[in-house]
């Protein structure tokens, strides 16, 4: 060794990217490679409610009233989760923070345990390509096999290659107009976060229009370099 200090605190990564950018796929690969745990806001809320934690009870009451769970409750749930043994290697935050106010609250939480954001990784995609990618996808109603109008069509039109079912399902919101709106909303919401983490020197960008293994390699290099 060259005498450099090795950072042994749990890694904290933020994964940014619009719908269809491949965040879920890449997060799973990072989990396998580095022993990290992906934490999404939805999963955190559901787990806290199921576990009956104090913050989970507060979240349940708010959700049952039809209101949005406050940042304070989400931070409290995240604080509890970061204390669990299975996240000792680190976490990948997906879907939180969504605003600079939440980002500042997250910084405060991490400061309590001597942690920090190691990298905020933005998966960069082309909007036109995303519209084609998302609006063209559909699944087999029999076995769940995924297909696409352009990139993966069944050998026999309308018939699943895997199970032979002719029932194909397409999400109602997977259409060009809706996808375009979702992308616009994402960019408007995320732009301040990009600037926030760029200002802190932890923003990293990855071209997410390539092949999955190439993207995974770029992400792995970022994670190694951030530690």
Strand order of the largest sheet: 2-3-1-4-8
pLDDT average, as an integer? 92
The ordered H/E elements are EHEHHHEHEHEEEHEH
Q: What is the CA-based Rg, rounded?
A: 20 Å
Strand content: 15-25%
Biggest sheet architecture: 5 strands, parallel
Report low-confidence residues grouped into runs of 5 or more: none
General description of the model:
The chain has 227 residues and is α/β, with parallel strands linked by helices. The protein contains 8 helices and 8 strands, in the order βαβαααβαβαβββαβα. It has helices at 23-34, 41-51, 54-64, 71-82, 100-112, 127-135, 176-199, 212-226, and strands spanning 11-16, 37-40, 90-94, 119-124, 137-140, 146-148, 168-169, 203-207. It has a 5-stranded parallel sheet with strand order 2-3-1-4-8, sandwiched between helices. A 3-stranded antiparallel sheet has the order 6-5-7. A hairpin with a 5-residue loop joins strand 5 (137-140) and strand 6. Helix 4 runs parallel beside helix 5 (100-112). The longest helix is centred in the last third of the chain and has 24 residues, at 176-199. It is globular, with a radius of gyration of 20 Å. The two termini are 15 Å apart. 27% of the residues are buried. The mean pLDDT is 92.
């Amino acid at each position: 060794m060259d005498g450099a200090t090795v950072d042994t605190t749990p890694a904290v990564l933020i994964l940014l990217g619009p719908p269809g950018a491949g965040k879920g796929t890449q997060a799973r690969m990072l989990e396998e490679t580095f022993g990290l745990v992906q934490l999404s806001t939805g999963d955190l809320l559901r787990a806290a409610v199921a576990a009956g934690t104090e913050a989970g009870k507060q979240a349940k009451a708010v959700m049952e009233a039809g209101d949005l769970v406050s940042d304070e409750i989400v931070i409290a749930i995240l604080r509890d989760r970061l204390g669990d043994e299975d996240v000792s290697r680190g976490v990948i935050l997906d879907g939180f923070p969504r605003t600079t106010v939440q980002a500042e609250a997250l910084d405060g939480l991490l400061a309590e345990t001597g942690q920090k954001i190691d990298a905020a990784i933005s998966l960069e995609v082309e909007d036109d390509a995303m519209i084609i990618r998302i609006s063209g996808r559909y699944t087999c109603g029999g076995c769940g096999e995924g297909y696409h109008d352009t990139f993966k069509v069944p050998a026999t039109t309308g018939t699943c290659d895997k199970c032979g079912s002719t029932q194909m399902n397409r999400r109602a919101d997977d259409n060009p107009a809706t996808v375009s709106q979702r992308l616009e909303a994402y960019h408007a919401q995320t732009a301040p976060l990009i600037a926030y983490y760029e200002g802190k020197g932890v923003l990293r960008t990855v071209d997410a229009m390539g092949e999955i293994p190439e993207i995974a390699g770029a992400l792995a290099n970022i994670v190694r370099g951030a530690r």
